[in-house]
Amino acid sequence: MARCDVLVLGAGIVGVSVALHLQARGRAVTLIDRGAPGEGTSFGNAGVVEGSALLPVGFPQDLPTLLRHALKLSAESNYHMGALPGLSGWLLRYFKNSSPAGLEATARALRPLLNRARAEHHALAEPAGAMGLLTPSGWMKLYRTKAGFDATARERALADELGVAYSTLDTDGAIALEPFLRPAFRQAIHWHDCDNCSDPGGLVKAYAALFEARGGLRVTGDARSLRRNGALWRVETAEGPVDGAEVVVTLGPWSLDVMRPLGIYVPLVSKRGYHVHLAPEGGMSLGRALVDVAGGYALQNTRYGIRLTTGVELAGRDDPPTPVQIARDIPMAKQLLPLGAVREAEPWLGRRPAFPDSKPVLGPVPGQPGLNVAFGHGHWGLTLGPVTAHLLAQVMTGETPFTDPAPFSVKRFL
Of 216, 220, 215, 158, which is closest to residue 189 (Cα–Cα)? Predict the structure, then answer.
């Protein structure tokens, strides 16, 4: 039987970052996952570290947009009818938190984290030898109609107030930045504070390798075996049981599999999404991520090809895949760029762990000594992994935190 200071459950971007930050504070850490680092949700994202992110993805508030989504007329979303009864309570809370005031409140709460997001990644990427995977070229949102662009007025005003840098561009200005773009859009916003990642899964693997190079232990195990062993926490692994004085649950959408047996219920759902890689044609490449707002999908230059990542599918976490959004998004993407064949036989399915207020949970769980959580990062898992790990490590080790962790406490759901 092995023993350490902290068990970290989950080797995605959040878990690996937590392990590194606790290790840097002198804790003996064991990182446990049933798979290799960076092969779950962390692998399949849009590959952007969005320091300039502001308003979270919200639930539609106006009736015409609601009807369009309800009737499945939009490429931005899809849902499984059979899953809706189980999601109804979460959806109601999500709707309430998606009011203009609610989205702005979330944006303000997250701003101290997002302000530091890129710097926190660089602090890990440099010693990990992974800075070559990050390109500091910003990202760009494309708007096909004037109405679509005009709808960003509130977000732009908030950006001006908070000092988040951006540029508004006409079609020619956007094409000057991305010469392979075709003029199938009317206006664009270039958000400057962003790193583009050519291999998100590879980035997580590089961070995990750094953790191990610094003496950290990574083992294969099933987090669902977590249980108390006297005053300690125990997990069964391929190398036998491992005990820790503390444990951190960083399992993203699978966190509920560990929390529920402990009698802890939080409103976490999986906002599912898909990706495929398209072959670039004519020597095409992208200098930054693009978001086609009308389709709700993102395009990113990766080592696998041009990655197309869809919007949201509401379904059970483990429901069979239904990648209908891919079929809608590809023709729209080919209106914008010279793209060829899809390189995968089947789209990749990912699960974004999301709370109804679009904020993660971080910190200790009341009534469970030594149990800590860090999950529910929604659309911003890659972005927020290292910075939320830094904040959690400060809380766990008694340091003065760089920002108030209260907005992210799990107490808000208990």
Answer: 158
The structure tokens listed for 161 are 């107030």
User: Which amino acid type is present at position 114?
Assistant: L
Q: What is the largest CA-CA distance in the chain?
A: 66
Strands, E assignment, 116-231:
134-135, 139-143, 166-170, 187-191, 194-197, 217-220, 227-229
Q: Which residue has the tokens 């000057």?
A: 176
Strand partners, 373: 249, 363
| Token pair 């610094």: residue | 214
**What are 382-395's pLDDT values in tens digits?**
999 999 999 999 99
Residue 363, SS3 per DSSP? strand
DSSP 374: E
Find residue 146's DSSP bridge partners: none
Gap between the Cα atoms of 414 and 371, Å rounded? 15
Distance CA 269, CA 286 (A): 32
Nearest to 277 by CA among 47, 42, 13: 47
pLDDT digits (tens, 9 = 90+) for 156-208: 999 999 999 999 999 999 999 999 999 999 999 999 999 999 999 999 999 99
Count Cα atoms within 13 angstroms, Cβ side, for 309.
Answer: 25
Tokens 């959806």 appear where?
91
CB 48 within 8 A of CB 55: no
Determine the Cα–Cα distance for residues 36 and 28; give it in Å rounded to an integer: 20
